[in-house]
Amino acid sequence: MEYISTRGKVGSIGFIDAFMMGLANDGGLLIPKNIPVIPVETLQAWSKLSYTELVLELFSYFTNDEIPKEELKQLVEASYSTFRHPEVTPVTKLSDDLYLLELFHGPTFAFKDVALQFMGQFYSYVAKKKGVRINILGATSGDTGASAIEGVRGKDGIKICILHPHGKVSKVQELQMTTVQDDNVLNLSVDGNFDDCQRIIKELFADLEFKSANDLAAINSINFVRILAQIVYYFYAYFKVADNIGTTKVNFSVPTGNFGDIFAGYMAKRMGLPVGKLILATNENNILERFIKEGVYMPGDFRMTYSPSMDIQVASNFERYLYYVLGEDPELITKLMEQFKVEGEISIDGEALAKVQAEFAAHGVLGAECLATISSVKTDANYLLDPHSACGVAAAKACAAPNELTVSLATAHPAKFNEAIELCGIEQQYPEQIKALFDKEQRQTRIAGDKDAIAKAIEVFYKG
Ligand SMILES: N[C@@H](CCOP(=O)(O)O)C(=O)O
């Protein structure tokens, strides 16, 4: 498999080079040159595999044997040995036609661990194999940061700097990031919102001189390996709930901010997994819902919500989807992304919009509906959802037709978001690992949302 950029100016590169490049050097996003289609017989064989076996089979279509088989196996096994559930991402039944895919059994209690535990191992492997320094730079609205830090804390040859929006992540998310004392970790608490953090890191990655002088590497879902690792659990969940592998259709409802997780579902569908609807769940920051319903991609006013990880207006991975839905035309994507930068809007209509609407359904879940869903699922099924997962369930209920089988992604553990849970009048028990965070000392640097100030701070950290 070779990798190309959505903007057409990065030639075909290999798997490890794509991993190390992160954001494509032409400012676009890397994607596989072809999407492999998995035959039905292979799907049937895969349905009997354990989670780690499935990872290895699926990765083999993308990694070009650049990592010797036995070494990849060790990396994958080490990555998922940190999960608290033997199935890694188990599926649980909520009602006759609605299932939850529990993605929060990793070390930081959020779905991000599924990819970032692997990426931490993989960065460490590359650092040793190639003898290179790796300086990770990432932006987070709360979950990615903690998970990425956990994946590489204390690892030789790797430093990590994470930008989070000051005061706009949950208390537990903040503690998970800022109580880590390893010297290879820097947390910058940025005045602004997540979109500011993401814009700044993308500008720094796009400055190729700065990128190369500082050996920058990406852990956000601009890095295709994030998407790849997340594709696996769509297959795994499908195998758990489908009666007839290869013919039964299953919808997936996905709480979405940066469009990465649902884009992994889109890739799974393109790879031949019989996915029905991809249901996109947003909160009040509903740029993606408006795009799917009206074809207009234009940021609205930023809102703080009960589901802070989804408080995002400009979704990174949207460019990858746009590339596919508009006929894989890199010149058109370059033009549209330039236009978005200048005018702040992209619109599609006609056939393209019809195509989007055939692939996706969308539902924006406002605060009251989110809390009502947490309460009703707790009462009816004795299951405590976190506010992001509640958006997924609410969207599944709004968009799936009766008798359609739907898997809703439970993306985080409720203990990460007690602010919303206690508003529902529910008292929850924290897992020990989360309880312990409240007694630890925090380390973070408050900084203006200014690219130059941030560039200076990270340069000092990486060179120190
Ligand atoms: N929701 C994310 C935002 C960053 O998204 P990513 O897909 O690029 O990691 C978070 O919790 O940080």
TrEMBL record:
<comment type="pathway">
    <text>Amino-acid biosynthesis.</text>
</comment>
<keyword id="KW-0028">Amino-acid biosynthesis</keyword>
<dbReference type="InterPro" id="IPR029144">
    <property type="entry name" value="Thr_synth_N"/>
</dbReference>
<protein>
    <recommendedName>
        <fullName>Threonine synthase</fullName>
        <ecNumber>4.2.3.1</ecNumber>
    </recommendedName>
</protein>
<keyword id="KW-0663">Pyridoxal phosphate</keyword>
<dbReference type="InterPro" id="IPR000634">
    <property type="entry name" value="Ser/Thr_deHydtase_PyrdxlP-BS"/>
</dbReference>
<comment type="function">
    <text>Catalyzes the gamma-elimination of phosphate from L-phosphohomoserine and the beta-addition of water to produce L-threonine.</text>
</comment>
<dbReference type="InterPro" id="IPR004450">
    <property type="entry name" value="Thr_synthase-like"/>
</dbReference>
<dbReference type="Pfam" id="PF24857">
    <property type="entry name" value="THR4_C"/>
</dbReference>
<keyword id="KW-0456">Lyase</keyword>
<comment type="similarity">
    <text>Belongs to the threonine synthase family.</text>
</comment>
<dbReference type="InterPro" id="IPR037158">
    <property type="entry name" value="Thr_synth_N_sf"/>
</dbReference>
<dbReference type="InterPro" id="IPR051166">
    <property type="entry name" value="Threonine_Synthase"/>
</dbReference>
<dbReference type="InterPro" id="IPR036052">
    <property type="entry name" value="TrpB-like_PALP_sf"/>
</dbReference>
<dbReference type="GO" id="GO:0004795">
    <property type="term" value="F:threonine synthase activity"/>
</dbReference>
<feature type="domain" description="Threonine synthase N-terminal">
    <location>
        <begin position="2"/>
        <end position="80"/>
    </location>
</feature>
<dbReference type="Pfam" id="PF14821">
    <property type="entry name" value="Thr_synth_N"/>
</dbReference>
